[in-house]
Known about the structure:
It is a single chain. By secondary structure, the chain is an alpha+beta fold. The chain has two domains: 12-67 and 163-230, CATH 3.30.1330.100; 69-160, no CATH class. It is 32% helix and 19% strand. It has eight helices and nine strands. It has helices at residues 36-44, 58-64, 78-84, 99-109, 111-126, 132-137, 166-177, 204-210; strands spanning 12-15, 18-25, 53-57, 68-70, 145-146, 158-160, 180-186, 191-196, 225-230. The chain has a six-stranded mixed beta sheet. α3 (78-84) crosses α4 and α4 crosses α5. The model has no long low-confidence stretch (mean pLDDT 90).
Amino acid sequence: xxxxxxxxxxxxxxxxxxxxxxxxxxxxxxxxxxxxxxxxxxxxxxxxxxxxxxxxxxxxxxxxxxxxxxxxxxxxxxxxxxxxxxxxxxxxxxxxxxxxxxxxxxxxxxxxxxxxxxxxxxxxxxxxxxxxxxxxxxxxxxxxxxxxxxxxxxxxxxxxxxxxxxxxxxxxxxxxxxxxxxxxxxxxxxxxxxxxxxxxxxxxxxxxxxxxxxxxxxxxxxxxxxxxxxxx
Length: 232
């Protein structure tokens, strides 16, 4: 494997006195017509080695699962427009500060839950506790993506929900291909492991630490899969 890295990222990171390589895998623009197995076979198998961890980005898994809501099918109501005004916007993105994403959150979690989570989230920020809204609202609202076309115009017309059955997916891929798999939600703010094959039980913190600087990038890199490999 060539030591390709995305701009501004390092190939190797040190975690707990061990060095780990992070190899981004570039793919075509994946759509719901694709299957995960064909992506793995086309782009990953020729690059992977025994002992590797294959980290699948949350977005690519969601898209292949067709967890998509199209802008044309979404009616944004007054409450979504109103509540989104109170969401803290950062240079990393708009989250539910985007009225479209707020409407999706209301649709999946219900208006009362979104309202009360928002109220307690605001109070949490006042006392310095961040992220309370997403912990309280649940329903994978923190994983809502899309409705933002700066990197790819296609994303301006679609919202992407969180993936489902990630553990089962990772286990089936491990059984078929023999590598360890994890589904990760990592961006320039932080990260989570949404699912992993059974052999990675208890390794969530390690995986997040290896990917904490988001080696896949947040723009037009088109590298939704990262091979994690302990450096020798």
